[in-house]
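Worked example 2:
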Amino acid sequence: MSGSIIAMMIAVSLLLGTIALLALLWGLRTGQFDDQNKFINAAQFDGEEELRDAAMMEERLKDARGKKEKGYRPPD
């Protein structure tokens, strides 16, 4: 590769990196990443039924994985 191509690739990568850094700084200043209530609201609006359903689905997944590991094949 010639030196001019490498110089051009370095210049383009520096330009793209600068643009990404400026976008990140802009997002931080304007509060784009501020979502402090996300987990509080998620926990507040989850009911016991949803938690029970999630636990049951997790148990089913564990059972299905265990059966696959033991060589279990469902009937056709």
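The mean pLDDT is 81. Residues 1-34 form one domain.
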